[in-house]
């Protein structure tokens, strides 16, 4: 029986992937083997020794202390692409809403309630909300992953000229991108040409303040900026100055902060990008499935800190070892298994940066001391025998 703790509301369709015969969901457990989380911040939360895996039902993992998890042999999963459609639709909605001044226009129309001259007021007042069509305008997309590529393709379909910047684009994302999206090799190549700019990169130290005073200065006057990725990607002080000077006309942001709220030209939504029933279900199902397959079978799919390793069971017992990615570990492991008179039926080893994962299916009698012997190898971080 595995104990799973959920730190945010996780869709019941996802939790149904953890049947009560094998899993108990106990949110008060001090010793869970698995955690299911959305945006709850785990940086200051103690990680118990019992914890084997954390599954983030969503894309961004900046709320999880990844290096600390890796050092403790805790596998961190996310759910790539599972909420991308929800975010992309919201961004397209924001592009239209921003361009046509819908938030201000709606608020203005609400204030007409009770007017005796409503129809006249409408016709007289509407000119203040005139805004440009998207067709023929230029959109810059920074980050062409699951979300950025969908936004770029949708903008092409709306008749926009689309510029894309992503020096690390994956092969899958590149294949899914419309051929009309123009490749920019630098932000300097893209920013001076954009009427609209949207950012879809993960938040990491290297992407902090991707939009800053310098990058904003390269933009066209009156640029409209959309940030449905992470608040930290945009330097708020620089953004507010750009709005004040007219360099930027609008800033749509899914991450409200006190400085942003109430400022003319700023439109904040309450982190709504993934908040659709479809995406909540997709993310929860994917996260629960990843967690279940790792806990029961040692298989790793969509981990952000360990290599993806999966293989069907080949009989006997399965030994799963997380270890440092350095020479001599495999021979030390196989030496111990040989001395223990165990036969290796199947074995796979993969590394990712400084860490590696070795999974072996063995036949023979496993002694109680085997976990301790394998854990005694200097480079070994965690051993599980399933
Ligand atoms: N508002 C929301 O509710 C919501 C929902 C989902 C995701 N997000 C955020 O959006 C981000 C992107 O999500 P995704 O599903 O598209 O992720 P993804 O991993 O599919 O795509 C990210 C892309 O950014 C690119 N990239 C990385 N560093 C870059 C850089 N310095 N310059 C340009 N490109 C760079 C990567 O190559 C990749 O193609 C997530 O990390 C998350 O922070 C927000
Ligand atoms: O990175 C993500 O997937 C989003 O920010 C969604 O976060 P949420 O699951 O808390 O809505």
UniProtKB/TrEMBL annotation:
Catalytic activity, EC: 1.1.1.399, 1.1.1.95
Pathway: Amino-acid biosynthesis; L-serine biosynthesis; L-serine from 3-phospho-D-glycerate: step 1/3
Family recorded in the similarity comment: Belongs to the D-isomer specific 2-hydroxyacid dehydrogenase family.
InterPro entries per the UniProt record, alphabetical: ACT-like_dom_sf (IPR045865), ACT_dom (IPR002912), AHAS_small-like_ACT (IPR054480), D-isomer_2_OHA_DH_cat_dom (IPR006139), D-isomer_DH_CS (IPR029753), D-isomer_DH_CS1 (IPR029752), D-isomer_DH_NAD-bd (IPR006140), NAD(P)-bd_dom_sf (IPR036291)
Domain ACT: 318-386
Catalytic activity: (2R)-3-phosphoglycerate + NAD(+) = 3-phosphooxypyruvate + NADH + H(+); (R)-2-hydroxyglutarate + NAD(+) = 2-oxoglutarate + NADH + H(+)
General function of this protein: Catalyzes the reversible oxidation of 3-phospho-D-glycerate to 3-phosphonooxypyruvate, the first step of the phosphorylated L-serine biosynthesis pathway. Also catalyzes the reversible oxidation of 2-hydroxyglutarate to 2-oxoglutarate.
Entry protein name: D-3-phosphoglycerate dehydrogenase
Keyword Oxidoreductase: yes
Coiled-coil intervals, chain numbering: none
Key words, A-Z: NAD, Oxidoreductase
Superkingdom in the source lineage: Bacteria
Transmembrane regions listed in the UniProt entry: none
